[in-house]
């Protein structure tokens, strides 16, 4: 009898386990990231319709931003069949961008020409061979109606932690120097897109590829530990990029970008360090372009106030700024050995990503996407490795000379 009961219990346990495994596996299947197979825009009778074809249902949240006028659409994280992240619109939509905003959320930003609001947003279930369709209908409204719909800024000052050092002294306890590499842009912010007729990769892809190679070159020496602010196509706010370097008490922060300019003949790399005043007109224009990234993201006022505050913090960061210049002065001659440099290769600009950071930091524009030769070279492994090696030599010199910190 006991034997039979034991067998029955065993059988029940096995069945339970079987059911559990089955549920797990079906859950895993359904947890697959939805894929967007097409984006379509139609315009008819004073209404513009923006449609995504998706293989699964998604959740969404829509809001409107002014200056410049934008419609921001946050949806469940999706995979994009074409991930170039920027395209021309139609009707009320001037241009649109899309990409990963943060884990779990993808973002689409529609730049709109007129005061336009979202009239309706909904998902249509699959019908007659058609997949799920996410539909956003835009309609033109008066300036007043638009202003009423615009996301209201937060009127209070944000609580912000003082920029104090973490308790532990991470720097002196480390065997290797820690370098934070920051590939610019990502997600729905493609960065520079290259010149007229350019069919190559957007800045976000070029700089991620270059940063991955530079990381390997630094780590190969055994002297450096490298953290990347992003290692995939995802959006990051400026302060989250520098925040990684601050929290980890990095020894160096290097932001990697690729430039663009009207004249397609202009080539070469430039090293930028932070300054309240831009070194020249071009540097000021560059800062305006690079700083735009957070505005593209649809940042709220809370963030903007943070930036104003960090300008004040910068005044006490004179030492860090001097160290940053020291590193730039080491980097320029090393880069010169491997890539073409712009005239006056060390420039200064008011760059948000370097602001308020208590770690020596530079922003390197490794070349011009608007120049076909530069655009090609920047995606080449050999060029990327050479840039990596020049950064290694510059870092070696910088740390060996023990420029005074603290
Ligand atoms: Zn950039």
Keywords:
2 domains; Immunoglobulin-like; 406 residues; single chain; 9 helices
Number of helices: 9
In total, the number of strands is 16
Q: In sequence order, what are the helices and strands, one letter per element?
A: HEEEEEEEEEEHEHEHEEHHHEEHH
Largest sheet: 6 strands, mixed
Strand order of the largest sheet: 12-11-13-16-14-15
Structural class category: alpha/beta
Structure summarized in a few sentences:
This protein is of the alpha/beta class and 406 residues long.
Structure description:
It is a single chain. This protein is of the alpha/beta class and 406 residues long. The protein is globular and about 70 Å long. Helix 7 (318-336) packs across helix 9 (381-400). Strand 9 and strand 10 form a beta hairpin. It has two domains: 35-141, Immunoglobulin-like (Sandwich), CATH 2.60.40.3500; 177-400, 3-Layer(aba) Sandwich (Aminopeptidase), CATH 3.40.630.40. It contains nine helices and 16 strands. It has helices spanning 2-30, 143-149, 203-220, 238-247, 281-297, 301-315, 318-336, 372-378, 381-400; strands at 35-44, 47-54, 60-65, 70-76, 79-80, 87-88, 93-102, 105-112, 116-124, 132-140, 177-183, 224-228, 252-259, 269-274, 341-349, 361-368. Residues 153-163 and 299-316 have low confidence and may be disordered. Helix content is 35%, strand content 28%. It has a six-stranded mixed sheet with strand order 12-11-13-16-14-15, with helices on both faces. A five-stranded mixed sheet has the order 5-1-2-10-9, with no helix packed on it. The protein binds zinc ion (ZN).
